[in-house]
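ASSEMBLY PREDICTION REQUEST
Request ID: AP-0331
Submitted by: J.K., bench scientist
Number of chains: two
Total residues: 1037
Priority: normal
Notes: Please return the full assembly, not individual chains.
Input sequences:
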Amino acid sequence: MIETIHARFSRFLRRTLTRPRIDLPLAIGLFALAAVGLITLYSAGDDNMALVGGQAGRFVLGGVLLLLISRIPPSTLRSWTPWLYAGSTALLVVVAVLGEGRGANRWLNLGVMRFQPSELLKLTMPMMVAWYLHPRQLPPSWKDMAVVGLLIAIPAGLIAKQPDLGTALLVTGAGAFALFLSGMAWWRIGLLIGAVGGMIPVGWHFLHQYQRDRVLTLLNPESDPLGNGWHIIQSQIAVGSGGVFGKGWQHSTQSRLDFLPEHTTDFIFAVFSEEFGLIGVIGIMLLYAFIIGRCLWIAMEARDTYSRLLAGAIGMSFFVYVFVNGGMVAGMLPVVGVPMPMISYGGTSAVSLLVGFGVLMSIHANRKMHE
Amino acid sequence: MKIRRSIKDTRGESALFRRRALAGFVLILLGLCLLVSRYMQLQVTRYDEFVTRSTNNSVKPRVIPPARGLIYDRNGVLLADNVPAFRLEVVPDKITDMPALLTELGKVVPLGQDDLDAFKKQLRQSRRFDSVPLKMRLTEDEIDRFAVNRWRFPGVDVVPYLTRRYPLGGLFAHVVGYVSRIDADDLERLDPVRYKGTSHVGRTGIERSYEDVLHGTPGYELVEVNADGRTQRVLQTHPPIPGRNLYLSIDARVQKAAEAAFDGRPGAAVAIDPRNGQVLAMVSVPTFDPNLFVNGISQADYSGLTNDPAKPLVNRAMKGVYPPGSTVKPFLALGGLEYGVRRPGDTVLSTGEFCLPGHGGGNSTGRGGCYRDDTRGGDGTVNMVRAIEKSTNTYFYRLALDLGIDRLSAWMSRFSFGGKTGIDLLGESEGVLPSREWKAKHSKFGWFPGETVIAGIGQGYWAVTPLQLGHAVATLAGHGVPYQPRLVMASKAVAEAQPQPLPNPPTGPSLISKDSDWSVINEGMRAVITSGTGKGLNDGFPYLIAGKSGTAERFSRTSDAYNTNKNTAYLATRHRAWFEAYTPADDPQIAAAVVLEAGAWGAQDAGPIVRKIFDAWVVFAKGGPPPVDVPLPKPATPPGNEAAPDQAVPAEDVPADASSSDGTTP
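STATUS: Completed
Returned structure:
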């Protein structure tokens, strides 16, 4: 018994490594992005090789997971989906109960490592929405939309309550994109957006004071020189002073002289913009656009509804990262804890992103054959 | 759920998806263009502006943490002070090889294992750019030695700070509490801007419950830095606003006398001014040195405190719950008058045994329906005053039955039994007030009449904290006008000339409708002192004292508690000794409740402690001459078996346990 499992596993491993089932353009795109990320990190972290090494280690771990997951056929993933979704939501509840009141309630301590269950939802959420819509008549009916709304709202609400608005936003986005791609009528989308817009004053009421302050600080950064106002001002100085061509690699005065806080994590893109200028920004935006486009291409080629919706949603939620982080660094959006994908240092985000791309690779490997 | 697989149009769906994906991609491209246009605005249109700001960017804000408010007693004696000190701080981001640094640094400034453990813990929890304290309270010698070697340790600095000191040590450990280092949980909870640069936060006691008032608001200065980031000069200063100073209503000398009266025996005392709810003394014995916690307590000290069977970290005054025994009798009598169930002159014949109607005599256990009196043979015919004086159980058994459990618990809850007193400390226990609702929640059985009977003498499910009893007796002494107990009576900002009193209005109208009722109870509690269990307690004291003793069984004789070995420490004695009193009886100005965990008899063991508190109060608050030394009531033979130890239902004694300790993590 043990031997069979062992044998099967080693065969699985061998195949994974000898005959990887990956989409080359997407892999190249990701590889390029990771390289840019490490180069930027080296400079942003004041030439700290240990920092770069740690990040590279995460990329390797993520890459291995990507290869392993690419071997799991989408049909298998689909059959696991309800359990994965229920399990990750249950973990959110556990964290909410155990972390009681004290505020440290995003983390689950596994002894060896701590991780945020909300990170899992970034993947299990679009999986669940795709699973639900898979057998149904599309475009979805009002009833199906209501069910999907509930599937999104429960975990998103739990995450927002932690409070981690950034992740709640990403999770909601991932679910909503799946719904969007399922062909929900445009007028319904308009109605929904209108309703959400109408809810903003109500939602404002439920925000924590510090979250409101972040939004208000955006309008008047000078009012808060010790907190986020400082981040916003310094980040804009960094971006603006980069100009068209940038100050050159390792020449970002803003981060080198410690004016820019969190310059390896949430604000690393300010360092990138300062060193590589508008040219660099446009270049990396093209790279992101290419990766997202390739994801959507894989989605179109996919064999069934589940795979299509899942691949499309993963690709589109990648955009949310870029837009929210890029907007925050440029002083266009409030300070929310969303990293720049593959460039910001640390966290589990690099690993979980690559796991998501592993699912895409698997969908690609099982695409429909052209007649 | 109906699945419409049969009419699923796969091809149409695929085309629909294709259109959607394209639309989505177009939207995403638009979004990215919007983003790029913003970068264009910053990097092209406003380039000149930002380049200028970048080259001139040599000004950084630097936070100035506020000084924490000080805490004084009512006469201005300092209870919590700020003293300047120096600590060693490390910025993790600037260190390439942390273990090597710690080894090298250890040769210059000795680093203890506790320092290293705390540092490593905090290192994991903090961000790389925030400096992490490595060693607190550096000595002059250590500072000098580091100064010489500073060039070898970039990223390490000596930083001045204000540290908290509690000059009176353990005397106010449970009241004032202590501050300790901010940990990761605190970081998530506290306002990051308000606590920037602050290393400590109130952990227990007043330090915790008044954290908001004590903390203050940080200021900042704009400093010019050179290319290495070293400060060149200060351009602008926005000074911090220090926290407000607090004035407790406790007189440190009365507190000291109260603590001394315990002579190290575990117990607690609470004294309250009935006229305004101000706490005059609050003592929990044994105690601990709060200074140990300020800069991180060592593992050895901490386990010493937590493993001490006497549980010095637990504030018994508000977290220790004990069966109140006979101390509830005056309140019950008052209830009888208020509900019109008794007139003062109504008498009861005490024969030494009381049986529930329908139960014959002979069987002396509670389950048989009969309950014992204190005095063998009974106290004869007693009215209300005499029943309080003699603590006649039969009188109160019958009164409790006539009131019924619902009226009994409704009345008692008005004195905050079974609930929070509302004192300005966090974490007080609620104890247990026997009621149908309480029992329904905790037992599958319904309410038995026998339980009403023993509730009348403060046994059974009853459990109260010394604070609750002190609050109740103060409310009684104050002619029923209810005040929430208050420790802090005034606060003062540094800029203010005079402390601002904190108002504490009564929480409602008097609980006593007729003052003649009050006089009856007062007369009964006077009689306790003149001729009852508390005889002699008034000798040599300038004012009239009124009081009541209580001796509660800690375990039922029928329960297994006597036979188990796990509770050896608690089995040494079997009683809790209580005394509650107020003075002057004709115009009450101080009321007190004392519990002695291992006391044999209420009046004889707890009574003298109350008297010593009153003595100190006479000297320090009234300016009177020191009263004559307390003449102890002669211990001779126990004055009647107050608690009717033959009762079957266990006195629900919950020894103050570790789980109720107020968050004392090292």
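REVIEWER COMMENTS: The two ends of chain A are 42 Å apart (CA to CA).
SIGN-OFF: pending second reviewer
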